[in-house]
């Protein structure tokens, strides 16, 4: 029974040692771990052979084999993960690839033209001309023309206003850039995109 306790301790320490090395294991380390597990397995079988009871001896051998198999499986898994991680690190960063991190819709005020100023000025002058008489009428006409011109300009700006979609992209290399659209680009935060000319498209 004492031998079983010793064996269990050895098997546990062997498994722990193998699992502790998993995160940094490469092909050479996998070979070393396999060799170490095989060597420990041989020692464990010798300990099991010293058991006087056949049932205990068989159970000991089964436990030793199970730990050996687990150690090999863990080593293979770690080696595969390391190879995959190494391949990903070797892949170049796509400078034109990124992810949408923000989408904002705003109102862009339109630009007023001379037409709005003139039309507003004429309408204001006509209204001002209806007020009072003599000098007062002249002053009202001038004030109406100035006010009408200003109002006409603002009205035209408002009529010509439009929505603008601003998409913020964070590239795989860490850079950020904003793209502006006159229509809904159909993108959402989290979408993967890439450059296409002076704009972006899904990838």
TrEMBL record:
- UniProt cross-references to Pfam families, sorted A to Z: Rick_17kDa_Anti (PF05433)
Q: Where is the signal peptide?
A: 1-20
Q: Where in the cell is it found?
A: Membrane
Q: What sections of the protein cross the membrane?
A: none
Q: Where is this region: Disordered?
A: 180-203
Read off the InterPro entries from this record.
Bact_OM_lipoprot/Surf_antigen, Gly_zipper_2TM_dom
Domain of life according to the entry: Bacteria
Record-annotated Glycine zipper 2TM domain positions:
115-156
* PANTHER family per the UniProt record, alphabetical: OUTER MEMBRANE LIPOPROTEIN, PTHR35603
- This protein's name: Glycine zipper 2TM domain-containing protein
Q: Which organism is it from?
A: Undibacterium curvum
